[in-house]
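JOB MANIFEST
job_type = single_chain_structure
chain_count = 1
residues = 327
[input]
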Amino acid sequence: MPSSAAASPPTAPATELGIPPLGVRVAGLAFRNPIVLASGTAGFGVELDEVVDLSAVGGIATKAVSVVPRTGNPALRVSEFAGGRINALGLANPGLEAVKRDYLPWMPAHHPGTRLVVNVVGNSIEDFATVVAALDGERGVDAFELNVSCPNVKAGGLEFGADPRALAALVTGARAVTARPIFVKLSPTLGAGIVDTARVAIDSGATGLTVVNTMPGLVIDTRRRRPKISFGSGGISGPALLPMGLLATWRVSQALPGVPLIGLGGVSSGDDAVQYLLAGASLVGVGTAAMRDPRAPERIVRQLRAWTEREGVRDLTTLIGTLQWPT
């Protein structure tokens, strides 16, 4: 199938779309605003009913979807620390068939104007294409997000994103079964090498990229002299991740101009969202902040709107990628 990385610019002005001033068009999709709830923090939408106004955000990335159900890691899975939180959920989800039958229909039925990006995980290269193919025709599914930070079980546990050949095969396989936008979610552990990995993903058929996933870390309970979560190490999210996410977004946006990016990591305010836009992101993910305060996404949208009004920015797309780097 042809790539949905459209011939039109990846991010088009809201004034051309008849959508609100905070609106953007990314990878051929119109978003009412650039704020997207990050995968793992919004479930499939229905879990947040009457808790978060999902019509106030631009979109949500679903909980991970795998071919078969995953029970995840044993409790305790999540713990707070001064810089954010550490988690090792183990990509728990009800599995492809249950997601397709019981969960995906809810969002388009209740919030049809909120974009739905399905996050996909797998134990093998083939798993990703299997999930994408099965969900490609489902009503309300706007795009896919491939989590390549998970281990390739068939290759001894090496992360897909750390193996260029596996990554290329994975993205190529997913692209072969859908014309919808595909975002590839990259890990901050790649460092400066994230640019090379990003290029492999785009060259293999990805429409855009999500930058970045959580950062591996360890938090210790000094009284028990044990890790705070049962798995031991886990993924760091929250404010501590903001500088790493911004740098990765800037690096990738400079190396791959015009490629749609979802900037993610540490966003808890409208100013944080503006920073990601300046660094080159077209959309901005909100995760831990929303778990701590379900009203945070709405507040961030209001703060973003207030910032644009104060700064005289009438078209949000004119802000994207305009960071002035020191010379």
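[summary]
Residues 1-9, 13-19 have pLDDT under 50 and may be disordered.
Residues 41 and 142 are 18 Å apart (CA to CA).
exit_status = 0
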